[in-house]
Write a structure and sequence with these properties.
It is built from eleven helices and 14 strands. By secondary structure, the chain is an alpha+beta fold. Residues 222-246, 396-430 are annotated as: Disordered.
């Protein structure tokens, strides 16, 4: 069964001992260092010799590094190889003309700690109704909460820490196949995403959830201000980060992780409900990344309404618009739901009854009153009806056609590199 690929994922809460957690954290930092170092090696090889290093050559370099550095040798060899394969896949995605990914970038120290393992290096077994154990190299068995069945053959695993707790995610081959027809054919719903109400449906339903309570939001703002003052004082003194500053940063990370978990839970719940109940789901084609860009501008040309734009950006990101779109696509694979994207222009200003479009039709955030026919409805529901009745938008450009090519790339795609000599071609294959 090792020749099959993972087609679904399972994530569980992991409960390592203090000693196991300390070693896993050390491995997570080593994996981040290895990824960044391998990225720099590829960039240097291209810039200096126009050679594209492959994963095979970098695995050989990893073997040499394990001989010289004890803390690198402490990381399981399979995990280091998996990190290099992930980097190689990132480059392949960048080189793919149909893939929207840009060039690989460095992983920041504040990024989530994660340690990958291939399926051959681990073993999973269930010990009771509520608990299971996963056997990891050099660590042994670690308990995890058996909250759902695996449902297939484990092909890989990733142990990660999100600031609150440890988790283990399994890539599982479960034989997932998209059904030819939905269980409820002919059912169509339009979904409007908003900043006050997260999701509004064309049938009148509105789903929303507050991910950060007001008290915790004030607490988080205070912690961030405190962390900023500590960092400013540290730079003035030229000292190292204090233990108090580390505690404040850890508290910020725990609070933000809880908010992310609540947002992810809501988004997954909503996507599951919608895909199960409807054969076709229509949403607006929104470029969330462009919509949430900063408005600060430059010193020569400062931005306009910067504070208001920053507040709108926070509200959009807090509701998880992009995460919801990804969750819909993932859930639609198992239900056979068709996700249709429609043009977003004027959906909130157009009357769903007569089609009259005017910016004055929307009197407030929640109230829509048509100036032509007098139709009155909730503004978000009216927009969702327009989304449901709109025609499908044209397929957007993908891959390199939508990338920002203005900045200098550290390693060009194969289609843009010059013809290499036989010696260089031979070296790049190893």
């Amino acid at each position: 069964m090792w020749n099959v690929r993972a087609d679904t994922g399972r994530r569980y809460r992991l409960y390592p001992t203090d000693e196991q957690a300390q070693r896993l954290a050390s491995w997570g930092h080593t994996c981040r260092w290895l990824y960044n170092t391998a990225l720099e090696q590829r960039q240097f090889a291209w810039q200096q010799r126009r050679i594209i290093l492959g994963v095979t050559a970098q695995c050989a370099s990893l073997t040499e590094a394990r001989k010289d550095l004890d803390w690198v040798a402490d990381l399981p060899a399979q995990s280091g190889q998996q990190v290099l394969r992930h980097l190689d896949q990132a480059y392949r995605n960048w080189w793919d003309p149909q893939h929207p990914a840009g060039p690989p970038t460095r992983k920041r120290k504040s990024a989530r700690l994660s340690v990958p393992f291939p399926g051959q290096a681990i073993a999973v077994r269930r010990v009771s109704r509520r608990w299971g154990v996963v056997s990891l190299p050099k660590i042994g068995e670690v308990k995890f909460r058996w909250s759902r069945p695996l449902g297939g053959v484990v092909r890989n695993a990733v142990v990660s820490f999100d600031g609150v707790a440890w988790h283990v995610g399994f890539g599982v081959h479960a034989g997932v196949a998209t059904p030819e027809a939905h269980a409820r054919p002919g059912t169509v719903v339009g979904v409007d995403r908003g900043v006050k109400v997260a999701l509004a449906m064309s049938d009148g339903r509105m789903w929303n959830r507050a991910f950060t309570p007001p008290g915790r939001e004030r607490r988080l703002a205070g912690l961030k201000s405190k962390a900023g003052r500590q960092e400013t004082a540290r730079r003035k003194r030229g000292a190292k980060t204090s233990n108090r500053a580390r505690k404040v940063r850890a508290e910020i990370a725990r609070t933000e992780a809880k908010v992310r978990n609540r947002r992810r839970d809501f988004v997954m719940w909503a996507a599951n409900r919608l895909c199960t109940q409807h054969a076709t789901i229509k949403i607006e084609r929104l470029r969330v990344k462009a919509m949430t860009g900063t408005a600060k501008g430059t010193i020569a040309e400062p931005g306009v309404n910067v504070a208001a734009k920053a507040g709108l950006n926070r509200a959009i990101l807090d509701k998880g618009w992009g995460m919801f779109q990804v969750a819909l696509a993932n859930r639609a694979r198992t239900t056979g739901t068709r996700i249709v994207k429609v043009p977003a222009a004027f959906t909130s200003q157009r009357c769903s009854r007569c089609g009259h479009t005017d910016r004055n039709n929307r009197e407030s955030q929640a109230l829509f009153r048509c100036g032509s026919c007098g139709h009155q409805a909730n503004a978000d529901v009216n927009a969702a009806i327009n989304v449901r009745d709109a025609a499908e938008a044209a397929s957007p450009l993908t891959g390199r056609a939508v990338r920002d090519r203005s900045r200098k790339a550290s390693c060009r795609p194969p289609t843009q590199r010059r013809q290499r000599t036989a010696l260089e071609a031979g070296m790049s294959r190893h």
